[in-house]
Amino acid sequence: MKARDNPFSVERLHAVRYRTAEATFDEILRRLDEMNYRAAIVGPEGSGKTTLLANVQDALAQKGLKTWMFFVNDTAPLTAPACRQFLTEVAPDEIVLLDGADAVGRSSWSLLRRRTANHAAGLVITSHRPGLLPTLVKCATTPALLAEIVDELKPPGRALAPDLLDDLYQRHAGNLRDCLRELYDLYAAEA
Amino acid sequence: MDTLSIALHEDKIAFAPCQTVEGTIRWSLQTNPEHLEFSLFWYTAGKGTRDVGVVETARFDNPGACGSKEFAFPLPDGPYSFSGKLISLIWALELTCKPGSETARREITLSPTGREIVLSEVSSAGGSSWNAKGSGRNPLEGILGSHR
Q1: Is B68 touching A (CB cutoff 8 A)?
Q2: How far separated are the first and last CA of chain A, in Å rounded?
Q3: Residue B132: helix, strand or coil by DSSP?
């Protein structure tokens, strides 16, 4: 199968919205507002943190709020000079959305946390562990959630054996991103 | 209802490098838009992060609620339209209006042959778990086959 036709291509995955049984998206937004836009989305790899952060960004933009999203990971670290530079550019009416707060060094994190408290409209982060900021949502996955997402993405009329998804879920320890990447490969290998 | 459309001259959708893509954009909107934006670009689709290259953008300020305009964008000599199993490169024209979420889009092909280049021979190099384990068999084949 060509990449452009693959039902599990990145652009199709990005169109999947965050879903949780814990709260509705509106409830999450209301809670975020109550938390003065200083909160953490917490969860393991592939549990939907980045998806939720992106959905939050869209929702805030629709409300007319300004955001500045940036991504940090081991290959794109936030150095202390870059952090200081970034903080000089953030406007007081902007909400900073930081994906990957775990990868921010201690001094940069301390600076970010302090500066955004007074010089930005908020700081919403994703993190693998709780404690960096008050927790907004704890992301978690289930085999049923994987099945629901796969059902949304796969071509209509093409059933998958339930044991395939259970197997994927187990092997990837609940990391839905990795499950969906493997499904991409499975479809890519089709003639 | 808001309508945006892109018509290509003689319905031609395949182009050789450095040819010119020509046509007409039309818009019929319920309110006067601030501006229309019309772009020629390519993007990648597939397993990895999307890459985009914008080649031309034309902006029309205060175009009125209804109208049409002819366009002619010279194409560059590449990159070619292609598809493998891990990545496809797709050329497109897109018309958007602001404010509003209405969008019109037409895909075109840019290649010396006029057809998308298919990279079927190099596709499995990315490796997936069953390949990595060396079984060589795609477990989806049997599963999909029995459930179609």
Answers
A1: no
A2: 6
A3: helix
**What residues of chain B lie within 8 A of the CB of A185, using their CB?**
47, 126-129, 131
Is the preceding peptide bond at A92 cis, omega within 30 degrees of 0? no
CA distance B123 to chain A (A): 8
Where do the domains of chain B lie, and which CATH numbers do they carry? 3-147 (2.60.40.1930)
Closest by CA to A184, choosing from B86, B143, B83, is B86
Give SS3 for B10. Answer: helix
Q: By a Cβ cutoff of 8 Å, what residues of chain A touch chain B?
A: 1-4, 6, 9-11, 157-161, 164, 171, 181-182, 184-190
Domains in chain A (CATH in brackets) are 3-15+141-188 (no CATH), 25-138 (3.40.50.300)
CB-based contacts of A88, cutoff 8 Å, min separation 6: none
How much is the ipTM here?
A: 0.75
A161 vs B45: CB contact, 8 Å cut-off? no
AA identity, residue B95: L
If you ran DSSP here, which 8-state letter would residue A70 be given?
E
- pLDDT tens digits, residue range A131-178? 999 999 999 999 999 999 999 999 887 778 779 999 999 999 999 999
Contact A160, A154 (CB under 8 A): yes
Per-residue pLDDT reduced to its tens digit, B85-144: 999 999 999 999 988 888 999 999 999 999 999 997 544 444 443 333 334 445 454 444
